Amino acid sequence: MAQGLHLIWIIFCVHLICISSQQETEFIYNGFRQEDLSTDGVARILPKGQLQLTDGSGQKMGHAFFKKPLEFTSPESLSFSTQFVCALVRKPRFDGGHGIAFVLSASMDLTHAEATQFLGLFNISTQGSSSSHLVAVELDTAHSAEFDDIDANHVGIDVNGLTSIVSAPAAYFSDIEGKNENITLLSGDPIQVWVEYGGNLLNVSLAPHKTQKPSQPLLSRSINLSESFPDRKIFLGFSGATGTLISYQYILGWSFSRKKASMQALDVTKLPRVPSHRANSKRPPPLLIVLLILLGVIVFLALGAAYLYRRWKYAEVREEWEKEYGPHRFSYKALYNATNGFHKDGLLGKGGFGEVYKGTLPSNEQVAVKRVSHDAEEGMKQFVAEIVSMGNLKHKNMVPLLGYCRRKGELLLVSEYMPNGSLDQYLFHEEKPPFSWRRRLIIIKDIASALSYMHTGAPQVVLHRDIKASNVMLDAEFNGRLGDFGMARFHDHGANPATTAAVGTIGYMAPELATMGACTATDVYGFGAFLLEVTCGRRPVEPELPAERRYLIQWVCQCWKMASLLGARDPRMRGEISAEEVEMVLKLGLLCTNAVTELRPSMEEVVEYLNESLKLPDISPNSPGIGTFTPLMIGSNSLLASPTTKTVSASFYSSSSANDSTFVTHSIVHGHGR
Ligand SMILES: *[C@@H]1O[C@H](CO)[C@@H](O)[C@H](O)[C@H]1NC(C)=O
Ligand SMILES: *[C@@H]1O[C@H](CO)[C@@H](O)[C@H](O)[C@H]1NC(C)=O
Ligand SMILES: *[C@@H]1O[C@H](CO)[C@@H](O)[C@H](O)[C@H]1NC(C)=O
Ligand SMILES: *[C@@H]1O[C@H](CO)[C@@H](O)[C@H](O)[C@H]1NC(C)=O
Ligand SMILES: *[C@@H]1O[C@H](CO)[C@@H](O)[C@H](O)[C@H]1NC(C)=O
Question: Comparing C-alpha atoms, which of 55, 52, 58 is closest to residue 243?
Answer without folding.
Answer: 58
